[in-house]
């Protein structure tokens, strides 16, 4: 175990011991993983997009019952019930609100007025500049190596761009899984790293063992980017289902989209108009078919099939490229201790000028 602490603008901002963030992954970042991450000294982020508002409140209270450490909640800024979810965060005294898409200036102001730290995730310098101007406290910068919806600019190119462009703490995401990566990110000027796939592959993650085994068996070449799931670039494991989606025509895609949309509507108690409205909100000016718009609103059901039900034949598995480098399932405490010990060893091994 390492006794190393690396105080950064991130640790000072949110009050965690280590400059490490466990990202808010749908169906994965539930109370058990979030509280284990928080207790390990990292910033755990609860994923709320796959929960109803009542489920979110219950999950927040469960995390609070498991840890006294700071944690956050990830929100979809474009969700129809975003205001209700913000109310839960404020009422329950959650430390951090993170966003997969840029929240509005008004939403940022409301959260900050309530003492909540606002940390949007962005994939381009101009987006970081926009949310910084609106009052965001920090940003997570995800390069193309990251899992889930992602861009095509590598972290090593995107990160220094953003660090040079804004004066708020920048958290690096995409391609991180060990202490060497943490030191590298800090050397670029980041205030910490955010990891998704690495925390998914821990013993504290509730993802079924058979699914974890698929991740552990994957090589770097087994991780791909497809637009066939919801019309947006989505990095995931290359599976039989993904191959089928890549080959599928418009009619079969539409039928599949309607079926999954119906299931998602039952799961979340959303109306059809709400479902379509949320799907349209994810369009962002892109030329998407109706099947893609429906899938954009219910992609969580494809993730649930794998992440909750263990059906890798029916679901997709979002994954960063680092899955090809991971071969074990430590606890969150073991993982964070290992990352910090590796960071300490890396720093000691760096040449000292003039020595």
Written description of the protein model:
This is Nitronate monooxygenase. Helix 2 packs parallel to helix 3, helix 8 crosses helix 15 and helix 12 packs across helix 14. The mean pLDDT is 90. The longest helix has 19 residues. The protein folds into two domains: 222 residues, TIM Barrel, CATH 3.20.20; 89 residues, no CATH class. The protein is globular, with a radius of gyration of 19 Å. It contains 15 helices and eleven strands. Strand 8, helix 8 and strand 9 form a beta-alpha-beta unit. The chain is of the alpha/beta class and 355 residues long. The strands form two sheets. It has an eight-stranded parallel barrel, surrounded by seven helices. The protein has a three-stranded antiparallel sheet with strand order 7-11-10, with no helix packed on it. It is 46% helix and 13% strand.
Keywords:
three-stranded antiparallel sheet, 355 residues, 11 strands, alpha/beta, TIM Barrel
| Low-pLDDT ranges | none
Q: How many separate domains?
A: 2
Q: How are the strands of the biggest sheet laid out side by side?
A: 1-2-3-4-5-6-8-9
- Average pLDDT confidence is 90
Dominant shape: globular
Summed up, the helix count is 15
Tell me briefly what this model is.
With 355 residues, the chain is of the alpha/beta class. Helices cover 46% and strands 13% of the residues.
Give a topology summary.
Blueprint (H helix, E strand, L loop, with lengths): L8 H6 L5 E3 L8 H9 L3 E5 L5 H14 L4 E5 L6 H11 L3 E4 L5 H9 L3 E6 L2 H9 L5 E4 L5 E2 L5 H11 L4 E4 L5 H10 L3 E4 L1 H4 L8 H9 L5 E4 L7 E4 L2 H8 L2 H19 L3 H10 L8 H18 L24 H18 L6
Parallel strand pairs: 1-2, 1-9, 2-3, 3-4, 4-5, 5-6, 6-8, 8-9
Antiparallel strand pairs: 7-11, 10-11
């Amino acid at each position: 175990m390492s006794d190393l602490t690396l105080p950064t603008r991130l640790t000072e901002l949110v009050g965690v011991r280590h400059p490490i963030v466990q990202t808010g992954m749908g169906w994965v970042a539930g109370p058990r993983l979030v509280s284990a991450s928080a207790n390990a000294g990292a910033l755990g982020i609860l994923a709320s997009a796959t929960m109803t508002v009542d489920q979110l409140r219950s999950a927040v209270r469960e995390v609070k019952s498991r840890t006294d450490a700071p944690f956050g909640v990830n929100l979809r800024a474009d969700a129809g019930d975003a205001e209700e979810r913000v109310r839960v965060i404020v009422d329950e005294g959650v430390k951090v609100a993170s966003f997969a898409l840029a929240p509005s200036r008004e939403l940022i102001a409301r959260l900050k007025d309530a003492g909540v730290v606002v940390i949007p995730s962005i994939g381009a310098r101009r987006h970081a500049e926009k949310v910084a101007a609106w009052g965001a406290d920090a940003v997570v910068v995800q390069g193309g190596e990251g899992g889930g919806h992602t861009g095509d600019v590598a972290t090593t190119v995107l990160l220094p761009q953003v660090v040079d462009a804004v004066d708020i703490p920048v958290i690096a995401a995409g391609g991180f899984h060990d202490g060497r990566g943490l030191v590298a990110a800090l050397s670029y000027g980041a205030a910490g790293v955010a990891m998704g796939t690495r925390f998914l592959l821990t013993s504290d993650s509730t993802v079924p063992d058979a699914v974890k085994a698929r991740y552990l068996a994957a090589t770097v070449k087994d991780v791909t980017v497809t637009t066939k799931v919801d019309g947006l670039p989505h990095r995931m494991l290359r599976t039989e289902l993904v191959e089928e989606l890549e080959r599928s025509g418009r009619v079969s895609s539409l039928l599949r989209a309607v079926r999954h949309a119906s299931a998602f509507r039952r799961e979340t108690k959303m109306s059809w108009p709400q479902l379509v409205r949320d799907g349209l909100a994810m369009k962002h000016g892109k030329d998407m078919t109706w099947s893609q718009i429906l899938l954009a609103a219910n992609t969580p059901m494809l993730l649930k099939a794998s992440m909750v039900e263990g059906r890798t034949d029916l679901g997709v598995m979002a994954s960063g490229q680092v899955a090809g480098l991971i071969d074990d399932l430590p606890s969150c405490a073991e993982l964070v201790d290992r990352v910090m010990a590796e960071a300490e060893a890396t720093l000691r091994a760096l040449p000292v000028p003039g020595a």
